[in-house]
Design brief:
heterodimer, A: 228 residues, Rossmann fold, 13% strand, globular, B: alpha/beta, two-stranded antiparallel sheet
């Protein structure tokens, strides 16, 4: 039961923010005595096929993904569709593994990921899988721009969640809340952030990329209609 | 009124497919300019998160596929109808693939809207969104509610609103009439 199937549902594959976060959860899992997990990338054909095959024999499955247009990326939905035959055995005791999830998004608030979290919880129920919980984290895109050192607290929390998964088969509520960070802006914060978002310096990540690619002047073009 | 339908049904000969085409026909009879994109017939490579459409060729996906057709027809419509059978409690991966490749329609910059962070608009106007779900065995009211909530969030991030949701358990004429009323 100490085996973990670690599934990275990011379309970016191994070099993704989702994988960065999943790796830290896996470190905690191993630290708490779990076997080194099998890591598969759903964006890679071989990884996808192996993930379908390995699902039923895993002790636990952790499926991580970025939020894409407010739900799961298409490749994750394709994987969920491939699990449809497992619904038929959902009520056989232990037929399907415990399921935990990780959803990270570029938005600063966690609320954007909550409808997907609700779907994933229902998915575990549909499969008759014990639900370990969903790690939700905003601000994911900044992980790319920041040195790993700057995220030490987040990595430590993700390791704790991995330990909890190995030990209790469930993420702890307090740790999930701490990792999620800001759920939503208060009215005062929203007013302040509204002003801050207007400062060019706030868009330094995107502006830097646009300038590097010689696309800065065209950043507001609207090729299929009237520009804002 | 220009209406674009994204047909996320993977099977060409299904009852849902026939139902959807009947709805499209009724809307056309009422004088609406209906464009149905059969997503299963389009070459859609899927979004790989490269952000090329935001930082290299703003507004355009860099993949050599037909996702530009989806973006063009979506932004040119007054109403964008997302149509799909329910599978595992949600819409199909096929529909999701098309939706993922619609991010060139918005801008990477964030702004605050309704107290939340959302992407800035790239276009002056966006279509209203509709959702038509094929009722499938194994789906319940909660599944519909969750699927609707996720697509409503997407509509909001696409500077729009989900103004119509229906399950394919009513006549094509009824659904067409309701769509015409919100289009």
């Amino acid at each position: 039961m100490n085996s973990l199937l670690l599934l990275n549902g990011s379309p970016r594959g191994p070099r993704s923010n989702s994988m960065k976060m999943l790796s830290r959860v896996a470190e905690g899992w191993v630290r708490a005595g779990g076997q080194a997990p099998e890591v598969l990338h759903l964006a890679q054909r071989a990884g996808f096929d192996r993930a379908v095959e390995a699902f039923s024999s895993a002790g636990a499955v952790l499926l991580g993904m970025p939020l894409y247009t407010d739900s799961m990326p298409a490749v994750v939905m394709a994987y969920i569709e491939a699990l449809a035959p497992r619904v038929a055995v959902a009520h056989a005791d232990g037929a399907n593994p415990a399921l935990g999830f990780l959803v990270q998004s570029g938005f600063p608030e966690a609320l954007h990921s909550r409808p997907l979290e609700r779907y994933l919880q229902k998915l575990a129920l549909r499969l008759g899988s014990p639900y370990a919980g969903t790690i939700v984290r905003g601000g994911g895109e900044s992980l790319q721009a920041m040195p790993d050192e700057a995220n030490r607290r987040l990595w430590a929390r993700l390791r704790v969640l991995g330990e909890q998964l190995a030990r209790d088969r469930r993420f702890g509520e307090a740790e999930l809340k701490a990792v999620a960070g800001r759920e939503h802006f208060s009215p005062c914060q929203a007013a302040l952030v509204k002003l801050i978002f207007k400062l060019p310096v706030v868009q330094f990540y995107w502006n830097g990329q646009l300038k590097k690619n010689g696309a800065w002047e065209r950043r507001f073009v609207a090729p299929y209609g009237l520009a804002k | 009124m220009p209406i674009t339908i994204l047909n996320g049904e993977p099977e060409a000969a299904s009852a849902f497919d026939a139902y959807l085409h009947e709805i499209a026909g009724r809307l056309a009879e009422q004088g609406h300019a209906v464009t149905t994109l059969e997503l299963r017939e389009l070459d859609l490579k899927g979004c790989s998160g490269c952000w090329g459409c935001w930082v290299k060729t703003p507004g355009e996906c860099q993949k050599r596929d037909q996702s530009a057709t989806v973006c063009r027809e979506a932004i040119g419509a007054e109403l964008l109808l997302l149509a799909s059978p329910m599978t595992m409690g949600f819409t199909t991966a096929l529909l999701k693939r098309a939706a993922d490749q619609m991010i060139p329609l918005i801008h990477p910059y964030f702004e605050i809207e309704g107290g939340e962070a959302h992407h800035r608009a790239r276009y002056a106007r966006y279509p209203r969104f509709g959702l038509l779900l094929g009722a499938a065995g194994g789906s319940d009211a909660e599944d519909l509610e969750i699927a609707t909530a996720m697509w409503a969030r997407m509509a909001r991030n696409m500077k729009s609103k989900l103004v119509f949701t229906a399950v394919a358990n009513r006549s094509a004429q009824e659904v067409a009439d309701e769509l015409a009323a919100v289009a």
